[in-house]
Amino acid sequence: MAEMEHPVTVEDGLDHFGDSEILHSLLQVAVNLSAISDFRKMLDMILQEVRGLGKAEAGSLYILKRNRLRRIAAQNDRLAVPQIILHVLNKELAVSGDSLPGYVAMTGQMLNIPNSYMLPSGVPFRVNRDAEAETGYRAKSILVIPLKCSKGECIGVLELLNRLNAQGRIVPFPETACTGVLSLSAMAAVTIYNALLQEELRRAHLETIVRLSVAAEFRDDETADHIRRISHTSGVVARAAGLDDKQVELIRYASPMHDVGKIGIPDAILRKPGRLTVEERKIVQEHSAIGPEILGDPLNELATVAREVALTHHERWDGKGYPNGLVGEEIPISGRVVAIADVFDALVSKRCYKDPHPLDEAMAIIKGEDGKAFDPMVVKAFFSAIDEILCFYRDPAVSQNALDTDE
Amino acid sequence: MAEMEHPVTVEDGLDHFGDSEILHSLLQVAVNLSAISDFRKMLDMILQEVRGLGKAEAGSLYILKRNRLRRIAAQNDRLAVPQIILHVLNKELAVSGDSLPGYVAMTGQMLNIPNSYMLPSGVPFRVNRDAEAETGYRAKSILVIPLKCSKGECIGVLELLNRLNAQGRIVPFPETACTGVLSLSAMAAVTIYNALLQEELRRAHLETIVRLSVAAEFRDDETADHIRRISHTSGVVARAAGLDDKQVELIRYASPMHDVGKIGIPDAILRKPGRLTVEERKIVQEHSAIGPEILGDPLNELATVAREVALTHHERWDGKGYPNGLVGEEIPISGRVVAIADVFDALVSKRCYKDPHPLDEAMAIIKGEDGKAFDPMVVKAFFSAIDEILCFYRDPAVSQNALDTDE
User: Can you count the helices (H) and strands (E) in chain A?
Assistant: First the structure.
């Protein structure tokens, strides 16, 4: 059993493998690195190549997230695919000496175990044999490599099991690590890190929206449920209107921003119990200009749609809306969709100044605005999806103040 | 001149280069990919290796950002370093046929020009000779490769100039692209994409803070300038207190969040002209609990510090602060730093209910709270940096309502 610093220099261990074999693998991986868009496919390819170079019968890739190791790729030439899948689904490991990948993630050091059944006593890790019990596959020689991002942080682990010699017998992995294996591990690390960054970026974009929503809720007690209903209805209507999955998601996540500008409207008007004066209505209408100011210049797609929605959800198909009096398809589809979701929710909800409209009345009002306030195509989508919309309204968790159960 | 689809298959063009040479370059790059933390060093290494494989006398890497190509690495075996640097600084290209890199970024297709002085007429691009005029270096054979991220988007361009044969004469790059060059280009693409993602992520994290700040400003007219002053003072004090650059930056960016909880305080109290009642003061104090609610569970370092600051900027060193009555170093350093910046700004600023204190009086009050409201170490840092703090206050752009010019 040997522990080594990673990375080693490029000369180490080259003699264990033919140059052209290593070259082929590296070229295969490198050329494909920027060409394969599917993250898992990319990892499968890397694992395949690294197993080839290490002459390993089996191997796994783990990703480290919130201090847990999750297996994201597994290959085993001896097991049938369903066994591997079962095995993969069940696998999540702690960062600790309770498993070899866990130990390597903890220490950041490579681990090379010639024979896992003949470990010296007192080693600070144990070989987790759960998988063995499930699949019957016995791992004897084991090489475990930490995958590190450019900041040196461990972001995953690569595990190779059972190196086979030309006669198909299990032999230890070379004492000195093979450079090809390390090169491919480095590529795996970069690929995984890339995917992690992309995911983190999506979450970061969403975070701005979420935080602003929470801030807006503090200005208006009704807002939390209202926002969830608008978001759901907008998503359902967008899908029914034939938008693609991505657009539907963007509208669903961005729609909570429609009223964010109300943060800038004084309490005296926002929370006034009676009807508003003409002057006060004008001040309330400013929220559709303040919203875009709060959202700023969009840095990403989600922010772009959020800004659209905040700016245009009070525009009308017939051009009589505000703030810009846009007409028809001048209004972005996001704004047209959220407009109908917003009005419907206002109609069927109790507000401090009004009782809720009965459902049939609310639907008649929406229908009456077909081609006036609303895009006829969106109205059609709304009614085609009305069951799914109402289903959410009738969920007690989101139905306070809206569509009382006797509806 | 030939245009080719990128990427090509791994077998193409291998015969143009020795296997072991390609292998050496790929290993060098791959092993280092996850080990080098400096982005530019990484790109320099990739460019060096790819030039070696392509036997190119010179080469550049461009990064594509907001539809402009910016040169981020340049090497030229014939020019002196200062010439290259001058040349790099001056270089930004449009995505258009006005330059070869611009054309390749536009089309996403590789371009191989055997002799740039013998271009057929009517080609849809021109060779930009500005650099030639500056440095006197003539580029004859040119290979330009688009760098694409895994989504297929072009994120940069690699340009190789003047392939030299064994006799040192300029020859065309091989008709069929060399796989080694393409592999290294792919690695360059992944590396650049990674760096772009990291930068975008930093901006996305900051964006949440910026958007919430803007939202908070709509609740309180004084806030914009107040926030800028607090941010500056906090950064200066943090540096004077011996925190490292990263901590200083985090505190500088996070400090604007200290009062974000005021979004949740009713106008009637927040904008009350006179003194607050005991009851009203309690409501105002809730802002240090509402702030963290708005900020939520931190997803990153910046959000963590923002939450700390929002939660603890009204704690006192002697334990008599709110909301949790923390004592001494129980209060995070970020909270201790922002506390002094906040109080100082309140003292020297005009508010709707009070005139500003004269500077000497304000400083005496701060001194009087040494070891009471404030950490003695932070008080010391504050006074050691007082000139830099006041300099910002005296800048007319941020001094409205604070430190009148006759001060």
Answer: 16, 8
Q: What does the alpha-carbon distance between residue B200 and residue B155 come to, in Å, rounded to a whole number?
A: 13
pLDDT-based confidence at B227, cuts 50/70/90? confident
Shortest distance between the Cα of B37 and any Cα of chain A, in A, equals 5
Chain B residues touching A200 at Cβ < 8 A: 201, 299
Asked if B30 and A186 come within 8 Å (Cβ–Cβ), the reply is yes
Which residues of A fall within a CB distance of 8 Å from B179? 27, 31
The complex's ipTM works out to 0.75
Is A37–B151 a contact, with Cβ atoms under 8 angstroms apart? Answer: yes
Stretch among A108-112, A265-269, B236-240 having the lowest mean pLDDT: A265-269
Q: How far apart are CA A163 and CA A228, in angstroms?
A: 54
Q: In order of start, what are the domains of chain B with their CATH numbers? A: 2-197 (3.30.450.40), 218-393 (1.10.3210.10)
DSSP state of A349: B
> What distance lies between CA A274 and its chain's CA centroid?
44
Task: Give yes or no for residue A342 having a pLDDT over 90.
Answer: yes
Chain B contact probe: residue of A16, A19, A27, A214 with most B CBs at under 10 A: A27
Contact yes or no for A30 and B27 at CB 8 A: no
**Rounded Cα–Cα distance for residues B75 and B45 (Å):** 11
Interface with A, mutate which of B8, B14, B16, B23 (most A CBs under 10 A) = B23
| Cβ pair A37:B187 closer than 8 A | no
For residue A7, cis peptide bond before it (omega within 30 degrees of 0): yes
- For the stretch B175-216, pLDDT in tens is 765 667 777 788 778 878 888 888 889 889 999 998 998 888
Q: For chain B, what is the total number of helices (H) and then of strands (E)?
A: 16, 8
Q: How far apart are CA B312 and CA A250, in angstroms?
A: 36
Q: How far apart are CA B141 and CA A371, in angstroms?
A: 62
Contact B258, B342 (CB under 8 A): yes
pLDDT digits (tens, 9 = 90+) for A55-97: 999 999 999 988 999 988 889 898 876 666 666 655 789 999 9
- Burial of A247-263, coded b for 16+ CB within 10 Å and e otherwise, reads bbbbbbbbbbbbbbbbb
| Chain A residues with beta carbon closer than 8 angstroms to that of B290 | 218
The helix/strand/coil state of A171 is: strand
- What is d(CA A59, CA A193) in angstroms, rounded to the nearest whole number? 20
**Centroid of chain to Cα B339:** 27
Q: Do B190 and A186 touch (CB under 8 A)?
A: no
- Lookup result for tokens 């220099």: A9
Torsion of CA B394, B400, B402, B403, to 10 degrees: 40
Residues A167-188 have pLDDT tens digits of: 999 999 987 656 677 777 887 7
Q: Does A299 sit within 8 Å of B147, measured CB to CB?
A: no
